[in-house]
Amino acid sequence: MFSSFFSGLFDTEAASMISISNFLLCLFCALGIGLVLAFTYMYRSRYTKSFIVTLALLPAVVCVVIMMVNGNVGAGVAVAGAFSLVRFRSVPGTAKEITMLFLGMSAGLIVGMGYLGFALLFTIILCLLSSFYNYLDFGTRKNAARYKTLNITIPEDLDYAGVFDEILKQYTVSYELIRVKTTNMGSMFHLTYHLTLRDIADEKEMIDKLRCRNGNLEIALSRQENTVTEL
């Protein structure tokens, strides 16, 4: 009676019943892998509680789904299509977060197929590489302090085309005007530049000269962010 409770209504010779011991073994293995992934992501990374809990449980969820459709090609294709439609309805994640989610799904899939050794080996290798890259700050932009975004306000009677070229050529390696916006009901222009400074020690001197040129209106110099290309 107890064993029949866990038998499938549609079990056939092609898709036999999964034993309770094998089910629990795969499930706890997937949960363990999820914890390893969660702790790996927490190493030298900013994170939220909801994301860490999701990362810890995701391999187990995928594992159970794959075990349930094991041997059924049609169901497997349907599940793959369903996962492709999954949208995490929250603030868009970074490329690192998306990679860890795919890593968790992949590990859960391998466990669900019954290859526990391969799943553990895959998880250990990827986690060690992730921790190693974080330790080295792999991919960090060199001389990041030199890349700046300049926001400067000028009066409407000042022609913004080339008005700051002389100063910017003196203090920057390169610069580009990327946005022009009217503000204060059209009485002022707000200009945004991307700069690469020659020497960050001359930053204040450059701002002082810009203040003299724009009539001592608002100037903001901030770190340049790569929000366009980041996932």
Compile the SSE list and pairings.
Layout (H helix, E strand, L loop, with lengths): L1 H4 L14 H23 L6 H20 L4 H12 L10 H18 L3 H21 L10 E9 L9 H7 E12 L4 E10 L5 H11 L5 E5 L8
Antiparallel strand pairs: 1-3, 1-4, 2-3
Helix pairs in contact: 2-3, 2-5, 2-6, 3-5, 5-6
Please explain how this structure is put together.
The chain has 231 residues and is an alpha+beta fold. It has two domains: 2-136, no CATH class; 144-223, Alpha-Beta Plaits (2-Layer Sandwich). The chain is 50% helix and 16% strand. The chain is built from eight helices and four strands; from the N terminus they run H-H-H-H-H-H-E-H-E-E-H-E. It has helices at residues 2-5, 20-42, 49-68, 73-84, 95-112, 116-136, 165-171, 203-213; strands at residues 147-155, 172-183, 188-197, 219-223. A four-stranded antiparallel β-sheet has the order 2-3-1-4. Helix 2 (20-42) runs antiparallel to helix 3 and helix 2 (20-42) runs parallel beside helix 6 (116-136). The radius of gyration is 28 Å and the shape is elongated. The two termini are 52 Å apart.
Terminal CA distance reads 52 Å
The quaternary structure here is: single chain
Order of helices and strands: HHHHHHEHEEHE
Report the biggest beta sheet as strand number plus sense, adding barrel if it closes: 4 strands, antiparallel
**Cα shape:** elongated
Helix count equals: 8
Classification by helices and strands: alpha+beta
Strand content: 15-25%
> What's the pLDDT, averaged over the residues?
81
List low-confidence stretches.
227-231
How many individual domains?
Answer: 2
Q: What would you report as the Rg, rounded to the nearest angstrom?
A: 28 Å
Helical percentage? 40-55%
